[in-house]
């Protein structure tokens, strides 16, 4: 009965949001643009609908991905059409870009739900990782404090750790493992008062402060998804009020991002430590929120411009291949190297595709040799192989995700499998980056997390055939 109420409520919410978006966009967008953007919206929401309709008992990564895809490649048509006019993008070009984006997403859905669901489920072994999360709270907490010590060593001996960027990034993910374990214990109703105080007044706030001290809001959103993954897995309902409150809070943080970066990256506060920078950031947010009448609207405009990867996509569609030839797979050359840690391969070529892409399409100043311009993975598919590359690339992406689902995201994968899956899928939401950056470390991280969890008393089983429940 709960699932039925969830899906009915979800249908009304999806339709209500769509009606609101159309009302905002109808004054400027053309009929074709509205139709295509609406189709991206509904197909983007489709995995969320299927998740509740099929009563899936796994981590809802693809449902989250559908929402993120729409925000990056469709929502701008409704809420901020002026950005197209400011970039001098024609309506036929916008229609073409929306059509290619829609085709790519549909290709992904076909690969993930049909081809992948029919063949991958039977061919890929299932990894089951059972751990006693209740008996390993101290071990998880110890990992958290080891990371704090490691960060201090990185600051003090930064030159020594230059060649260990991949290792640093992995170790920096370990606090999420601790937070995920404590949160899962709480949802299971077995976290005592001391544990709850530790989780909500120390572990999560300190992680939050550390993330915003770097001036990036994207990682904050990705890591918040870990808690939502675990919540939906255990509770099977969408916490709408929490989403609205967090969304509003993150919007306010976003509005002060540029000013904070100017002060903390290049200005008088660049020598502060991480937590001093975080409190500086929150101070800016507080001052702007209460002193500027239109601060929320300003933050909203900044956010809509930042998340509109459709504009970047349209500029590449306009220039490729008419003025700039296809790259023919050039940007994927680092994918093989990304699988090898730098401490094993010290001469591994440096990845500079963001800078090369930005200069190739005049998105960066010719004199700017330090800035890296984000290359969204669907844009990367197009500039290498055109519309066909987007369709085939998204199809392959769907199959890869289905394989990952079968490995660490299926019913009865154990608490260890759940924790591993949430950490991996947290990073895979970063579709504003190129493919090697998204997928390059996935299987390395899966193995490393697995071996760490084995130290917590895990039991590994490999199942060659999935049950009917596993194929949902």
N-end to C-end Cα span? 19 Å
Main sheet overview: 2 strands, antiparallel
What structural category characterises the helix and strand content? mainly alpha
Low-confidence stretches: 458-472
* Count of helical regions: 22
Would you count the extended β strands for me? 2
Overall form: globular
Characterization of this structure:
There is one protein chain. The longest helix is centred in the first third of the chain and has 33 residues, at 91-123. Strands 1-2 form a two-stranded antiparallel sheet. The protein has a domain at 137-306. Helix 2 packs parallel to helix 6 (91-123), helix 11 runs antiparallel to helix 20 and helix 20 (414-427) runs antiparallel to helix 22 (442-454). Helix content is 69%, strand content 2%. It has helices spanning 2-25, 31-53, 61-73, 76-79, 82-86, 91-123, 137-156, 165-171, 174-187, 193-212, 218-235, 240-255, 257-266, 274-291, 295-306, 309-319, 334-338, 353-360, 377-408, 414-427, 435-439, 442-454; strands at 126-130, 459-463. The model is unreliable at 458-472 (pLDDT under 50). With 472 residues, it is an all-alpha fold. The radius of gyration is 22 Å and the shape is globular. It starts with a helix and ends in a 9-residue tail after the last strand. The chain contains 22 helices and 2 strands.
